Amino acid sequence: MDLVIAPGDLVAAAGALMDARWGYLVAITGLDLGPDDGRLEVLYTFAGGAALLTLRVPVPRDDAKVPSLVSVIPSVSFYERELMEMFGVTVEGTPNPDKLFLPEDWPDGVYPLRKDFSMEQLNRQAEE
Amino acid sequence: MTLNLDQTWQSALDKVRTWARINSPWAIHFNSGSCNGCDIEILATLTPRYDVERFGIKLQGSPRHADVLICTGPVTRQARERLIRIYEQMPEPKFVIAVGSCALSGGAFRGCYNIMGGIDQVIPVDAYVPGCPPRPEAIIDGVVKLLAKLQGKDTSGEPIVIAEPTEDPAAALVQDGDVEETDA
């Protein structure tokens, strides 16, 4: 089941699920809807047994910001770091914004898992 | 310490040095980002079942004591500096064996954003052992062929390839800018 919510409601929705003790967070997925669509989506998937509930948070591509879930689920910190470095979605309030998987000399502003990423873009940024 | 010896003594010393290196090459193993499949096969090669110690091959802990670097993995950007540093720490003459299709050309990961695409993009390679993963027999074949080549001449010329592939499988895997969504 998918629920589309606004970024401002994310912490409240996740908190409600955790307070009701329904399932647990299994995945944080970044979804790039394509270069023509001006949005990215962040999907928070909760699983209670065999049932999956997904909170979909659409954000504009240029100003992608979601609040951090660390206050509700402390262990999302790693996954939010991966989301930030791979998609360029800024997670506000996450305690450690450093890169998780990408190397230290990776150029800023290059997000490998977006649809408009290419190796030429990487080489061009790296030369600058 | 340089000794100015005449030609016969010099060539005799070279022969002794070559004999010592060929009869007992000490190996060091490095994984530059591989899935560990090739590393498991290298580990199997070093067990008594395949017994490479009859060739004098011993696994060493430190690159400063090693003659041969057995390397796996498509070199990830993070592993690149470490691989170069290990290669530079090995004393001359040193030889590199690239094991596995990832080490040859990037393998299954060719075209990915975080790899250099094979060990010979970073350091010079003397022997290539293809396979995913190669059997321990193939790895032994690579080491033995490298040693046999060294017996012929002391300097490294053409690199050894264990088996010629009939077509280039890596070319079919090159992607131009395709990206996937991630599931964290």
Topology:
The complex is a heterodimer of chains A (128) and B (184).
Chain A: E1 2-4, H1 10-19, E2 24-32, E3 39-48, E4 51-60, E5 65-67, H2 77-87, E6 90-92, H3 119-127
Parallel strand pairs in A: 1-4, 5-6
Antiparallel strand pairs in A: 2-3, 3-4
Chain B: H1 7-23, E1 26-31, H2 37-45, E2 58-59, E3 68-72, H3 77-89, E4 95-99, H4 101-105, E5 127-129, H5 136-152, E6 160-161, E7 182-183
Parallel strand pairs in B: 1-2, 1-3, 3-4, 4-5, 5-6
Helix pairs in contact in B: 1-5, 2-5
Helix content class of chain B: 25-40%
Strand arrangement in the largest pleated sheet of chain B = 2-1-3-4-5-6
* Gap from first CA to last CA of chain B: 58 Å
Task: Compute the average pLDDT of chain B.
Answer: 80
CATH C-level category of chain A = Alpha Beta
Protein structure class of chain A: alpha/beta
Estimate the strand proportion of chain A.
Answer: 25-35%
Number of helices of chain A: 3
Give me the Rg of chain B, rounded. Answer: 18 Å
* Rounded radius of gyration of chain A (Å): 15 Å
Query: Mean pLDDT of chain A, as a whole number?
Result: 87
CATH architecture of chain B: 3-Layer(aba) Sandwich
Largest interface: A-B, 27 and 14 residues
